[in-house]
């Protein structure tokens, strides 16, 4: 309670200072309010409750640029904490004044106004719509073209926040011609600017196929691929997010990305970073491979599978492992060639262990189970399937044995290998209910071999032989 | 009298003897009778047996003939069936051969071109290498995009319809111009220098060619022994460089207008069979010096269009015959893949409990529901009926009632 009272006290002290005659005092009071509100959500609420906002908005229209900067800073600080506070700012008519500030000459004022608008639009779609309705978007696009780097950054971030909520908002941003300017700025050497620009483009491209095609038509490929080799981690992350959002819509877009060498670039990018930075790249590979088998083959040819299996084994976090498992499942599920390419890298035992371990989260278990299922359905590469005979749970074992029963009747070398590696012995030991599918598969495997071998490997054969020895009466000569 | 007395004395003896002889014979009568019966019955039996043997033989002959006939018929049927089966097997085998070839041809030609796929993957890996190791030079990137697009455009078949979009976008890709700010400034500068040098060289060459051509045109201005040409003025120390150029130049010969060889219409552009090697292409056919074939011929383009019309298989042909089964399999596999839980969905929560259904007492007692009160409302006892006719209407019904529901007004709502 006392904190509340203190807050009230502070607000009531600062408020009259805002109306002071001396402009420096006004500016400093505004700055103080802004810093207080920036620090804590409660303080921001106190600012709103103290009815300071209408005063700020009113004087924002008239005062000099330092005051404008400070007032915009206060609005930004209040608006960033929660949607309700941002709504309060919108309700007191601050948007129009902020948009007027965007037309000011001083780049600092523009930057502060754009920042405030960005933070307001960040929370939800209605606030974004309110910002757009106030006519901020064309002015933001003009701000992007200004020479100051900081202003460009903030304007790009504001556009990204506006377009991320819904396709209509993204379409509004696109209609103003923002894509061309954003695409030009990809090559800017400043890495923070690149982050925001790439984030803006990915928020635009993620909503629909048309928007993604428009982003692609701005000729960002293959320039974006150089951003994947940037030193800054977040530039890499945003670049791979952009590529992922484009790749996930249609096979044609994924084809485009593959043809420009995007898959190799993303694979290298995955290899060079760790943790959450990798996640969009991994998902991008999964999306590309999911569309068609030719694309999955192109992904395999770009040597992505070893990289993904490294990710699967190395990463400590479950959601990244789940994404890697999903991507591997999408690559391997199309034809036996694909399944072989995945199985050769020895990922199947890793997937199985992830599925079986009790520590993995449910999502990881589900995804690894699906991946194993989809790869197993098509896998005819027997050396990779053999370990499964030993550790798999019964529902997966059924399908492993089924795959064996499909391949063994046709391949004599594989049959020999199966016997020498102890697979036939293991198969005999499997207990299956009579008439079940598993029993049928076991029978079809047994029918590939001569009876003596099957009997030799059936469990308890040595005991049966010894019994025969015991009961044998030698012929009396 | 004495004889009479003797006869009378012997009469009892006679009677006894008569009786005795008759009775003595009686002993053997039965035996003899039995013997006679036996002999007769044996003889009759022999006769009958002979007759039966005869009948058996005759019946055997008839049955033999009949069975032979039936058997031969059966055998002919079997032979016919065998023959038909053999023919059908042969036809099936031949049909399988034809279908095998046709299906392989169709898949290779119209659906999936393996070698194209291989080339595409090779192009992709080359582009990948470029991206990986040479990302500094955008020019090389550009070239490779060109190269990939060119390689794909060269085989512009309908086999990969996806590439139609690619071609347009690769055009756009290759229209990518050199932007201003680059991260690797040194690479750009190097490249710019290289380009400049090349340009200069090209310019110089062009100039040289132009001058050469001019020299050839002005060949007649060369100085002879008697008359010095304009470039070889006697007042100069050494001749003008143009003089030397004129000396080297070969005079231009005015040529007859080149026989512009009109290439035969490049047929492969218009056809579905787009492999250039499938049709022989020669530019000018050798002259045939016999008389022209007579007759109005159809336009060659029409004929070729018709001959090489692309395949439009019926729906029946376009799918394999076990399409439905395969599709079901596919669906089942996909569902299996997607399902996290493999247990069958049980419709009711107590489905697995084997509880016997216990019906209501109300409906399971033998005193069932009474239909009186729900089916019929009159208590009827047919045994008490006097006659079996229903009640007759003696009085006619009211007119009013006969018009019930048939008037125009909708109040009755039956109209």
Question: How are the elements arranged and paired?
Answer:
The complex is a heterodimer of chains A (477) and B (415).
Chain A: H1 2-18, H2 23-39, H3 41-49, H4 52-60, H5 65-79, H6 83-91, H7 94-102, H8 107-121, H9 125-133, H10 136-144, H11 149-163, H12 167-175, H13 178-184, H14 191-205, H15 209-217, H16 223-227, H17 233-247, H18 251-259, H19 262-272, H20 279-291, H21 293-301, H22 304-314, H23 318-332, H24 336-344, H25 348-356, H26 362-378, H27 382-391, H28 394-407, H29 412-420, H30 423-429, H31 437-446, H32 451-457, H33 461-471
Helix pairs in contact in A: 1-2, 2-3, 2-5, 4-5, 4-7, 5-8, 7-8, 8-11, 10-11, 11-14, 14-17, 17-20, 19-20, 19-22, 20-21, 20-23, 22-23, 23-26, 25-26, 26-28, 27-28, 28-31
Chain B: H1 2-111, H2 114-133, H3 138-154, H4 163-174, H5 185-217, H6 241-248, H7 300-307, H8 315-318, H9 323-338, H10 361-364, H11 399-402
Helix pairs in contact in B: 2-3, 3-4
Give structural attributes.
heterodimer; A: 477 residues; mainly alpha; 33 helices; elongated; B: 415 residues; Spermatogenesis associated 17 (chain B); P-loop_NTPase (chain B); cytoplasm (chain B)
How would you describe the overall organization of this protein?
The complex is a heterodimer of chains A (477) and B (415). With 477 residues, chain A is an all-alpha fold. Chain A has 33 helices and no strands. In chain A, α11 packs parallel to α14 and α14 (191-205) packs parallel to α17. The longest helix of chain A is centred in the N-terminal third of the chain and has 17 residues, at 2-18. Chain A starts with a helix and ends in a 6-residue tail after the last helix. The mean pLDDT of chain A is 90. By secondary structure, chain B is an all-alpha fold. Among the domains of chain B are: 113-203; 218-248, no CATH class. The longest helix of chain B has 110 residues, at 2-111. Chain B is elongated. The model of chain B is unreliable at 138-142 and 155-184 (pLDDT under 50). Classes of the chains: A mainly alpha (477), B mainly alpha (415). Chains A and B meet through α16, α18, α19, α21 and α26 of A and α2, α3, α4 and α9 of B.
């Amino acid at each position: 309670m006392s904190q509340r009272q203190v807050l009230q006290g502070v607000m009531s002290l600062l408020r009259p200072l805002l109306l002071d005659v001396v402009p420096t005092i006004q500016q400093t009071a505004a700055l103080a309010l802004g810093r207080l509100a920036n620090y804590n959500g409660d303080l921001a609420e106190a600012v709103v409750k103290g009815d300071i906002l209408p005063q700020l908005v009113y004087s924002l229209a008239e005062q000099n640029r330092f005051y404008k900067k400070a007032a915009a800073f206060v609005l930004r600080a209040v608006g960033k904490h929660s949607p309700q506070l941002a709504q309060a700012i919108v309700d007191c008519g601050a948007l129009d004044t902020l948009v007027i500030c965007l037309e000011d000459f001083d780049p600092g004022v523009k930057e502060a106004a754009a920042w405030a608008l960005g933070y307001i639009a960040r929370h939800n779609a209605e606030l974004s719509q309110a910002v757009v309705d106030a006519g901020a978007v064309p002015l933001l696009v003009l701000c992007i073209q200004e020479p100051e780097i900081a202003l460009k950054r903030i304007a790009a971030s504001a556009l990204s926040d506006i377009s991320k909520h819904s396709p209509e908002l993204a379409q509004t941003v696109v209609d103003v011609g923002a894509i061309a300017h954003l695409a030009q700025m990809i090559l800017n050497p400043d890495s923070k600017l690149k982050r925001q620009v790439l984030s803006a483009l990915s928020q635009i491209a993620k909503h629909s196929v048309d928007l993604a095609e428009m982003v692609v038509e701005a000729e960002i490929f293959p320039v974006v691929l150089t951003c994947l080799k940037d030193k800054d981690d977040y530039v890499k992350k945003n670049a791979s997010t952009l590529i992922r959002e484009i790749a996930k819509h249609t096979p044609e877009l994924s084809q485009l990305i593959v043809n420009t060498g995007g898959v190799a670039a993303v694979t290298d990018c995955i290899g060079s970073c760790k943790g959450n930075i990798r996640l969009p790249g991994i998902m991008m590979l999964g999306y590309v491979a999911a569309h068609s088998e030719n694309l999955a083959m192109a992904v395999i040819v770009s040597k992505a599978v070893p990289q993904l299996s490294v990710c699967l084994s190395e990463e400590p976090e479950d959601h990244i492992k789940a994404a890697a498992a999903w991507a591997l499942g999408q690559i391997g599920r199309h034809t036996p060639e694909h399944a072989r390419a995945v199985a050769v890298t020895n990922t199947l035992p890793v997937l199985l262990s992830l599925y079986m371990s009790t520590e993995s989260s449910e999502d990881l278990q589900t995804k690894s189970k699906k991946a194993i299922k989809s790869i197993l359905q098509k896998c005819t590469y027997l050396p990779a399937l053999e370990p499964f005979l030993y550790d798999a749970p019964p529902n997966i074992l059924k399908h492993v044995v089924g795959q064996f029963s499909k391949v063994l009747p046709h391949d004599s070398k594989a049959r020999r290998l199966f016997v020498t590696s102890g697979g036939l012995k293991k198969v005999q030991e499997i207990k299956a209910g009579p008439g079940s599918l598993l029993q049928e598969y076991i029978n079809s495997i047994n029918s590939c071999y001569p009876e003596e071998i099957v009997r030799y490997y059936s469990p308890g054969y040595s005991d049966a032989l010894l019994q025969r020895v015991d009961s044998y009466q030698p012929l009396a000569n | 009298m004495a004889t009479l007395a003797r006869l009378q004395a012997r009469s009892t003896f006679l009677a006894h003897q008569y009786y005795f002889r008759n009775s003595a014979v009686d002993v053997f009568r039965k035996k003899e009778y039995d013997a006679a019966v036996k002999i007769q019955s044996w003889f009759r039996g022999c006769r009958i047996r002979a007759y039966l043997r005869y009948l058996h033989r005759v019946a055997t002959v008839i049955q033999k003939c009949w069975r032979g006939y039936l058997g031969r018929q059966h055998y002919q049927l079997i032979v016919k069936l065998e023959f038909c089966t053999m023919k059908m097997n042969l036809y099936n085998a031949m049909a399988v051969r034809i279908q095998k070839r046709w299906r392989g041809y169709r898949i290779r030609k119209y659906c999936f071109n393996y070698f194209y796929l291989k080339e595409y993957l090779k192009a992709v890996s080359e582009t990948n290498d470029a991206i990986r190791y040479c990302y500094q030079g955008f020019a090389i990137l550009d070239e490779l995009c060109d190269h990939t697009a060119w390689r794909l455009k060269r085989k512009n078949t309908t086999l990969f319809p996806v590439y139609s979009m690619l071609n347009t976008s690769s055009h756009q890709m290759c229209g990518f111009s050199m932007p201003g700010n680059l991260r690797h400034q040194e690479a750009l500068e190097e490249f710019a220098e290289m380009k400049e040098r090349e340009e200069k060289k090209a310019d110089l060459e062009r100039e040289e060619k132009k001058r050469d051509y001019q020299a050839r045109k002005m060949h007649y201005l060369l100085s002879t022994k008697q008359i010095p040409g304009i470039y070889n003025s006697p007042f100069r120390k050494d001749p003008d460089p143009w003089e030397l150029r004129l000396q080297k130049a070969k005079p231009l010969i005015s040529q007859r207008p080149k026989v512009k060889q009109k290439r035969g219409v490049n047929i492969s552009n218009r056809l579905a069979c787009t492999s250039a090697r499938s049709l022989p292409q020669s530019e000018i056919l050798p002259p045939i010096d016999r008389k022209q074939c007579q007759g109005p011929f159809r336009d060659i383009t029409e004929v070729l269009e018709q001959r090489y019309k692309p395949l439009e298989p019926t729906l029946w042909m376009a799918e394999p015959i076990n399409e439905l089964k395969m599709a079901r399999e596919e669906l089942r596999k996909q569902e299996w893949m997607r399902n996290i839980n493999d247990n069958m969905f049980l419709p009711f929560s107590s489905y697995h409990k084997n509880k016997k259904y216990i019906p209501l007492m109300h409906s399971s007692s033998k005193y069932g529901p009474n239909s009186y009160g729900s089916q019929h409302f009159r208590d009827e006892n047919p045994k008490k009926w006097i006659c079996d006719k229903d009640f007759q209407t003696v009085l006619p019904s009211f007119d009013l009632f006969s018009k019930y529901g048939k008037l125009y007004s909708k109040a009755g709502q039956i109209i």
